[in-house]
Amino acid sequence: QVQLQQWGAGLLKPSETLSLTCAVYGGSFSGYYWSWIRQPPGKGLEWIGEINYRGSTNYNPSLKSRVTISVGTSKNHFSLSLSSVTAADTAVYYCARSKADSFDPWGQGTLVTASS
Amino acid sequence: SSELTQDPAVSVALGQTVRITCQGDSLRNYYASWYQLKPGQAPVLVLYGKNNRPSGIPDRFSGSSSGNTASLTITGAQAEDEADYYCHSRDSSGNRLFGGGTKLTVL
């Protein structure tokens, strides 16, 4: 059964770059896309973007200018980089396996706070 | 429209049936999937495709779609079903998007 484990810095200052990594265990990394999704406090879910094992990406147009999603060298990790963070980027960030019409499973979530 | 619209809040009496809806033009072309969010827990996929439940999801959860509206129905709601529910689909450009979420209260 596929499990996702994620980690990264939880506290950033405005203008810094957010960096999170997600590891995939117990299943195939190839053959799927892998997504990042976030939920600001008290707000809804927002899809950030996705990548496949070959490094092909799709990004949310509203975040595209600041987002980079990459595949790790071990090929069972993928990472999120979000530049120039502001307080509006404060959220719980999730990684998830993307399928054509759904996300399953999800990582445990990481709270990232951007505050001076 | 590239949005998915959900009612912010819905309530249901214990053991009764509740329908949570998701409206959007893209639903005429794409299936919706549905996610259950509880505080402090990872989101859980409860429905996808035409009306498919992942392993472990009770059969009281079912889905349907008509025109621009997708629905999640819980038949015989239980106390543990109290949660936020989000629909997901794609916009006209194929970008993934979520509805605004529905807070379900089980009375």
Largest interface comes to: A-B, 24 and 24 residues
Largest sheet of chain B: 6 strands, mixed
State the secondary-structure class of chain A.
Answer: mainly beta
From the alpha-carbon coordinates, what is the Rg of chain B to the nearest angstrom?
A: 13 Å
The chain-level mean pLDDT of chain B equals 95
Task: Please provide the count of β strands of chain A.
Answer: 11
Secondary-structure-derived class of chain B: mainly beta
E-strand count of chain B = 9
Helix count of chain B? 0
Task: Describe what this molecule looks like in 3D.
The complex is a heterodimer of chains A (116) and B (107). Chain A has strands spanning 3-8, 11-12, 18-25, 33-39, 46-52, 57-59, 67-71, 77-82, 91-98, 103-106, 110-114. With 116 residues, chain A is mainly β. In chain A, strands 2, 4, 5, 6, 9, 10 and 11 form a seven-stranded mixed β-sheet that branches. A four-stranded antiparallel β-sheet of chain A has the order 1-3-8-7, with no helix packed on it. Chain A starts with a strand and ends with a strand. With 107 residues, chain B is mainly beta. In chain B, the strands form two sheets. In chain B, strands 1, 3, 4, 7, 8 and 9 form a six-stranded mixed β-sheet that branches. Chain B has a three-stranded antiparallel β-sheet with strand order 2-6-5, with no helix packed on it. The model of chain B has no long low-confidence stretch (mean pLDDT 95). In chain B, 0% of the residues lie in helices and 44% in strands.
Features:
heterodimer; A: 116 residues; mainly beta; 7-stranded mixed sheet; 4-stranded antiparallel sheet; 0% helix; globular; B: 107 residues; 6-stranded mixed sheet; 3-stranded antiparallel sheet; 9 strands; 44% strand
